[in-house]
Amino acid sequence: MMIVTVGESRRVDFLPISGKLIVWIIKITTVDMSRLDFNLATVFLALWEERSVSKAARRLSLSQSAVSAALARLREAAGDPLFVRTREGMQPTQRALAMAEPMQSGAMLIHSAFSARTAFDPATSRQHFSLGMSDDFQIAAGPLIARRLAQEAPGITVTFRQANRHRVEALFEAGEIDFAVIAQPAQPSALQQQEIGQSAYACLLDQRACHVPIPLTLEDYLALPHILVSFSGRDGIVDHVLKKLRRTRRVQSALTHFSSLPPFLTGTRAVSTLPVHAARSLAAISGLTVCAAPIPLPSYTVSLLWQRTADTLWMRQLIRDAFQQVLPEPETLSLL
Predict the structure, then answer these.
(1) Share of the chain above pLDDT 70, in %
(2) What does the alpha-carbon distance between residue 117 and residue 223 come to, in Å, rounded to a whole number?
(3) How many distinct helices (H) and strands (E) make up the chain?
């Protein structure tokens, strides 16, 4: 804020909310403008239009004493009575007449600043988004998201962060992700959630190197060495199901990322069991074979998570569209 003294008057330039708002206040000598209550402008305008303390009070849903107190503060700030009681009501002084137009303009600017929303335009946006998801989702849907952004929103950048149902809330709380796609998210959650599909499990192998017929039988499946992908590196859903069947498998190698699988399987007599969306994506770039697992592995829900305060509907829809392309159709889940 800048104050310039000219004789007995001071000109006060307020930094604009939109455009430049200039208000002239006469004979301000002791008022600290940084502590001036700008709600007084609302009282001034109500008095200006109603010309009555009681009517202004009803309009503002305030008591008459509150409006009278506000008028006293206005008079002190302006160094002028502003409104004088007459038979015709509260008539404005010359000072109030001079103040009315800039006060109305300022109120309109403030109203516009709070009520107007800037529309999100993906074609011109330079926003950055951080998406949390496990690497099987990154493998399957990440390229689709990136390609569509390049085509429709070239100024938008995106970071893919490793996330799972156990870490996702902490990542949101730390402000490290804007959206997340999670398998079977924890319930209940303070985050906004939308189920966007379901997925299941399938096998990935080099059929020529394994010398087994497709579909796999349980005996062929258990006879092959297994490549495990697990965050813990110790066991996974397959081991839990086999335990119920009183069977076991031999895990030859354990990995922590699905993206590492193709070199471990190509030309090798081994099999891996993984989410079907990742299996299909890896098979498409490696020439490996996808087939159903010969054990009853469960399907699971896939959900999109976000915070209400940081929602961007266009981006949320883009993520959902990408996943609906790569997640299996509901009617095929029972065949996997």
Answers:
(1) 84
(2) 62
(3) 12, 15
Phi and psi angles of residue 3, each rounded to the nearest 5 degrees, phi first = -120, 125
**How far is Cα 22 from Cα 19, in angstroms, rounded to an integer?**
10
The pLDDT score that the predictor gives to residue 28 is 37
pTM for the complete prediction?
Answer: 0.66
pLDDT digits (tens, 9 = 90+) for 48-74: 888 999 888 888 888 888 889 989 988
- Dihedral of alpha carbons 43, 48, 52, 55, sign: negative
Q: pLDDT digit string (tens) for 69-78? A: 989 988 988 8
C-alpha closest to that of 140 among 235, 276, 231: 276
Cα→Cα distances 93→46, 81, 87, 101, Å: 15, 7, 15, 14
41: which DSSP letter? H
To the nearest whole number, what is the mean pLDDT of the chain? 85
Residue 331: φ, ψ to 5°:
-70, -15
How much is the pLDDT for 185? 86
d(CA 221, CA 238): 11
E strands, 75-170, in order: 83-86, 89-92, 128-133, 157-161
Range 233-236, long-range pairs (CB < 8 A, 24+ positions): 236/273
The SS3 assignment for 237 reads: helix
Classify strands 9-14 and 21-25 as parallel, antiparallel or unpaired: antiparallel
What token pair was written down for 13? Answer: 């330039």
State how far the Cα of 166 lies from the Cα of 170, in Å rounded to an integer: 8
Q: Output phi, psi for 262, to 5 deg.
A: -50, -45
- SS3 for 226? strand
